[in-house]
Amino acid sequence: MKMSTNQTTDDQASSQVHNGSIADTDTPSMHIRQLSPVMAAEVIGLDLRHPFDEQTRQVIHKAFLDYQVLVFRDQNLSKAEQIAFTGQFGQLEEHRSRNLGDAEFPLVHVVNNLGADGQPNGKLKSTAWHTDKSFRPAPAMATILHAVMLPPDGGDTCFANMYDAYEALSAAQKSQIDNVRVVHSWPMSRENANHAMSEEETKANPPMSHALARVHPETGRRCLYLGIHAAYLEDVDFERGRARIIELEAHATQPQFVYRHRWQQGDLLMWDNRCLLHRADANFDVAHFPRVMHRTCLVGTPTEGQRIARAPLR
Ligand SMILES: O=C(O)CCC(=O)C(=O)O
Ligand SMILES: [Fe+2]
């Protein structure tokens, strides 16, 4: 079991990891080993440059549902190979606005901390808890992130398990939120980040109403649907709803629900956006060390009853 010894408070749970004997899955070509009791498993022995046979694909898909984060070790995929790998699990998301890829591979978004001169610019994006594209009519099912260049240490990605966060609520708390709808809004997220949006962009991204305790479409398990794009609670006084969202997110991102991924060269991660929050951690010298990742996303399905949201109650 490869575990780093310099644990931080964010990943208390990782220190309780069993020795790899539980929930191991082996086929002749691969080994799947759980990394933390909270979530995540590493997959060893596969070369993702080659397509899976159907049996392997199904084992991987099941592991993805069981562990929420899969860590494929020792990979070195070109953009074209990452697109082919991603396409085995569904339809690739097109990136928009600031997420544009390059002209040849627009489906691959380059996540980096580099300025126009190619040097680290001290800015790390996506450091707030979120789930990818939760403001879209069909929010992202999965994100695939492949390490291209890593800082010598740090630059972790943290994940919070929204199944566990929901299940840890009391029966009374659950019944309070079971029929509540949360609105995920790209225009409001941009506004909060002080980014002006064109009228056209605002129109193209209407705020979306979701069940706050949504049901995962494949596992049938209930989980909280929060993060930076969760703007308000529908039909609840705006300020009261904001306070409730903040309170729930503080609950949902406590150390016992968090897995901290310490990247290794060659890692390719695939995570389930439907039941996790994630964030990049600036625990390295962002102004000096390049951190570069290649990112692809898979289109998901609308959440149950998803529709354009009613305006906030003020
Ligand atoms: O840079 C990271 O660790 C995470 C970036 C992110 O939020 C994403 O790729 O969706
Ligand atoms: Fe993200």
Outline:
The protein is α+β, with helices and mostly antiparallel strands. The protein has helices at 54-67, 79-87, 162-167, 171-177, 186-192, 199-204, 238-252, and strands at 25-27, 30-34, 41-44, 69-72, 109-112, 142-149, 157-161, 181-184, 208-211, 213-215, 222-224, 230-233, 258-261, 268-272, 276-280, 292-298, 307-308.
Sheet with the most strands?
Answer: 8 strands, mixed
What is the radius of gyration? 19 Å
Q: Could you give the count of β-strands?
A: 17
Q: How much beta, percentage-wise?
A: 15-25%
Name the shape in a single word. globular
Q: In the CATH hierarchy, what is the superfamily of the largest domain?
A: Clavaminate synthase-like
Order of helices and strands: EEEHEHEEEHHEHHEEEEHEEEEE
- Number of helices in the DSSP assignment: 7
CATH class of the largest domain: Alpha Beta
Strand order, largest beta sheet: 1-2-3-4-14-6-16-5
Ligands present: 2-oxoglutaric acid, fe (ii) ion
CATH topology type of the largest domain: Double-stranded beta-helix
Unreliable parts:
1-23
